[in-house]
Amino acid sequence: MTEFSRVSTGLGEECGVFGAYDMDGNDVAPSIYYGLFALQHRGQESCGIAVTDTNGQRKVLSRKGLGHVNDVFDEAALGELKGNLGVGHVRYSTAGGTRVENAQPLVINYVKGTLAIAHNGNLVNAIELRKELEYTGAIFQTTIDSEVIAYHIARERLNVKTAEEAVKSAMKKIRGAYALVVNSPRKMIGARDPFGLKPLCIGRRGSTYFLASESCAITAVDAEFVRDVRPGEIVTITQKGIASDMSMAIPEEKHARCIFEYIYFARTDSRIDGVEVYHSRILAGKALAESYPVEADLVVGVPDSGLVAAKGYSEYSGIPYGMAFHKNSYVGRTFIKPKQSDRESSVKIKLNVIPEVVRGKRIVMVDDSIVRGTTCANIIKMLKSAGATEVHVRISSPPFLHPCYFGTDVPSDDQLIAHSHTPEQIRQMIGADSLGYMEISKLRDMVGDLKYCDACFTGNYPMEVPGEDISHAFE
């Protein structure tokens, strides 16, 4: 873009996948549309839907494009997507740039037929796997690691009897984080990486089965939540029902669910692996109030992910909870601004302070994270300009010290403010009167007995990771 530049006001989302299979033969595109709409928070750069008719010619019809779900699809576009088996995807680019070629689902035509694949996550061995494929003649159309997965599934399918066996064979080669929905001509297959880094769940509405990144999307299509896909599990949904293969599973003590799903990524009304996201954020707020008490008049949350933790802080501390911000709902996490404008004005496009709420008050401001510090500093400045006498910042995650290699846009070390500054230095830089981060030891309170990955805070990765940033290795 020559006249405009994109601005992201915080941490990047993951991606969202949604699959549907109507055993009665009805079109599933409308349900996928609503499912993706419910997952829009997980990716706002591109989206797509691919469907096939299991009773017809089994031709895959697809549409994808840049923008939000309602930008890419209208009633006419959905009406053209005739088929009772389909998969959809919303994308935030953590690997590969923002271009329509990188939008998913990927549709692969090969000797055994057609596969439609949607992927949430990132592979840590994508570079070597892609080079291996290129040296055997593979030609890539995208710059995303999801295409590496698609190629491996298609190649493995030539050596095994079923598509689900091909998925398992591919899983033996790929390393990293993934939730997959793979549609073959008469099957919908879901697969979750053995560590459980990425969420995936199953739903049902009458004779229609669903696979989704979050339970909120199951609810959005008026379906019943059945269960989560277990870490390392491959589920195959056919006319016969659901079949499960746990041969790729690892011991439970090695599981490493992304803790940031509970802090930030997942929608507040979702439930992941038995833990209610809303409840986990209430507990995060209470932990912050316990660790960092302060005399104040009002607790406020930065919309949207800081709101529930702020309520938890308020409940534990007894300080009243208030709404201090108006959020422009028509602005996504990433938006366009004129190059000449500074970052502060970009924040104001999205968020404005309500002066009468904060004027003359000591404020506790709760947010989910501080990445580079710029956005937080501007919000504090806005609060004080509106009359707040003090702003005490409480963050419902520990300091980001290490990059993420598993599909979360945690940037390299040199872009992480906490990597090179102490909390006191950060407090001074952002202009807060006090600053408190979630204590590492209290993350456990949010998710109970679940094993989780906190590598972005501790550097303790659940697997071997590259020694450098690989997110744009194929650009």
Could you explain the architecture of this structure?
The chain is of the alpha+beta class. The strands form seven sheets. Strands 4-3-5-2-11-10-12 form a seven-stranded antiparallel sheet. Strands 6-7-8-9-13-14 form a six-stranded antiparallel sheet. Strands 18-22-23-24 form a four-stranded parallel sheet, sandwiched between helices. Helix 5 crosses helix 6 (163-171) and helix 9 packs across helix 10 (307-317). The longest helix is centred in the middle third of the chain and has 15 residues, at 277-291. The radius of gyration is 22 Å and the shape is globular. The two termini are 16 Å apart.
Strand content: 25-35%
In spatial order, strands of the major sheet run: 4-3-5-2-11-10-12
**How many strand elements?**
25
Shape: globular
Distance between the termini: 16 Å
Poorly predicted segments? 1-10, 333-344
Provide the structure class.
Answer: alpha+beta
Give a short account of the largest sheet: 7 strands, antiparallel
State the helicity in percent bands. 25-40%
Please count the helical segments.
17
- Mean pLDDT level: 89
